Amino acid sequence: MICWSAENVMAFFSGSCLLDGEVLRPLSHVRSNWELMPDIGGLYEIEEDSFAGMLNSLVSEIAATTPPSDYHSYENSVAAYMNLVRDETYTLRKGRWRYAADGRTLSVHELTYMLEQASCDSNDIPDLVLAAAGRVRAALKFEQHHYDEMEGGHRIMLAALLTIILFRRSDNQGGLC
């Protein structure tokens, strides 16, 4: 097991081959420069029309967070808000979000949409930051030293959380909502 520390979290995200494509490319309609360049003195080089600076700040914030062991509860708290707005279209059963009408499990993309929509009223979603920290903690616990080494499903969900956080924070800066 790798211990939680700011250094280990920074190393977890540094020099990734997948992070920019999975986290920043979906935001290329907001800022077109989605490819990350490693920075000798830190995580990623800050460039014009890029989320690199915001991503560096978010990674530092995650590194300074006390990660929860039950990160799903933080994701679920945000998703539950969306469920209330949608007149309880979804239900949480056996740890999975499902359609209330027929019990089908939501796909990762549907759950991501649910989280993104639920976060629309806010430019900063602390529960999503905690969920992201919890997912990083779980990866480190299972000897996944780097973002690129994460199990695929967990990596996709972490990428979605980071994308949503960056998008909502960019909303505040540029008035996207």
Mean pLDDT: 91
The rough form would be described as: globular
Count of domains = 1
Radius of gyration: 16 Å
What fraction, in percent, of the residue positions are helical?
40-55%
Give me a quick take on this structure.
The chain is mainly α and 177 residues long. Helices cover 52% and strands 5% of the residues. It has one domain (6-174).
Provide an overview of this structure:
Helix content is 52%, strand content 5%. By secondary structure, the protein is mainly alpha-helical. It has one domain. The protein has a two-stranded antiparallel sheet. Helix 4 crosses helix 5, helix 5 packs parallel to helix 7 (152-174) and helix 6 packs antiparallel against helix 7 (152-174). The longest helix has 23 residues, at 152-174. The model has no long low-confidence stretch (mean pLDDT 91).
Key terms for this structure?
single chain; 177 residues; mainly alpha; two-stranded antiparallel sheet; 7 helices; 52% helix; globular
